[in-house]
Amino acid sequence: MSIFNKVLFIYNGSAGQTETDRALAAVLPVISTETKELKVVQTEEAGETKKICLKLGEEYDLVIILGGDGTVHEAVNGLAALDKRPVLAILPGGTCNDFSRMLNIPQNLKKAAETIMSGQQVPVDVGKVNDDHYFLNFWGIGLITHTSSNIDENQKRLMGKMSYFISALRTVKEAETFHYKMKTDQGEYEDEAVMIMVLNGKFIGSNQIPLPSINMDDGLFDVLVVKESSFGAFLDLFSLNSPDINLNDAETRLFHLQTKSLSIETEEVLDADTDGEIYLETPATLEILKHHIHMIKGY
């Protein structure tokens, strides 16, 4: 018995032909047996996924994206703007596949397809930036942006997830502080930082940020400010679930709050990283759209 009447399957055609053929062979037989009508679309250029989702999204019950974080980001920017939004599912076809991890989607493609066909539909919050851009996972400035910019594409192809770690190590040595002003539901803040992350998901570069309060369906951003570029600060960052870390301590190298909306200004215009894509900048106004889209989650 078919679970979905109409399914739109979009895959990133920029990967190598052999790799693409192998991926499609793993997932399409699983998906096709559980759908009445399946439309398969291959994209060839940046921005095409967003256009397809905007144009066709309201006609389908389910949209499945086979691609990496950038392709998923495009899909969300197309679907979030629609009045009638289909369910969205992710087949992890990139290097890190961060939000698929948040959804408990297996990283093996065949198992991921089986999970999508048998998984649960859950409401997911979506971040909105400056009234016309959307994100699922995070928005950030400072070190997070420099890390993405410094990734060597050849190294990324050869080393995969490790390339993000190597870029982060290289970037930490060069990071400079910036002055910011931030208005939130909790109050106004002004200070120096090397990085500000506005989080809806808890995986970045496939690494989990161990902050227990991060949830994709609570209607709140988790805002994390890293005040200094030091080994100790980043040790704190990945030890946030430790009882030894007190984020309310004035001397801590990290600052955390939750808010439904915020605005950020910086003395100098800074590039912003949005789900791994760098095309926005400061100043920025962000708001959370609670339960704006439904997605498939694994059990």
Which key phrases capture this entry?
elongated; alpha+beta; six-stranded antiparallel β-sheet; 28% helix; Tumour Suppressor Smad4; 299 residues; Rossmann fold
User: How does the helix and strand content classify structurally?
Assistant: alpha+beta
Largest sheet: 6 strands, antiparallel
Question: CATH top level of the largest domain?
Answer: Mainly Beta
User: Would you report the number of β strands?
Assistant: 18
How confident is the prediction overall: mean pLDDT? 88
Distance between the first and last residues' Cα: 21 Å
CATH structural fold name of the largest domain: Tumour Suppressor Smad4
Q: What is the radius of gyration?
A: 19 Å
Biggest sheet strand line-up: 6-5-18-15-8-9
Overall tally of domains: 2
Query: What fraction strand?
Result: 35-45%
- Summed up, the helix count is 9
Instruction: Indicate the percent of residues in helices.
Output: 25-40%
Unreliably modeled segments: none
Question: Tell me, what's the shape?
Answer: elongated
**What is the string of helix and strand elements?**
EHEHEHEHHEEEHHHEEEEEEHEEEEE
CATH architecture of the largest domain: Sandwich
Structural commentary:
With 299 residues, the protein is α+β, with helices and mostly antiparallel strands. The protein is built from nine helices and 18 strands. The chain folds into two domains: 4-118, Rossmann fold (3-Layer(aba) Sandwich); 138-291, Tumour Suppressor Smad4. The mean pLDDT is 88. The radius of gyration is 19 Å and the shape is elongated. It has helices at 17-32, 48-56, 69-79, 98-102, 109-118, 143-149, 153-159, 162-172, 231-237; strands spanning 4-12, 35-43, 62-67, 87-92, 120-129, 133-135, 138-142, 178-184, 187-193, 195-199, 203-204, 207-208, 221-226, 254-259, 261-266, 271-274, 277-281, 284-297. The strands form four sheets. It has a six-stranded antiparallel sheet. It is 28% helix and 37% strand. Strand 11 (203-204) and strand 12 (207-208) form a beta hairpin. Helix 6 crosses helix 8 (162-172).
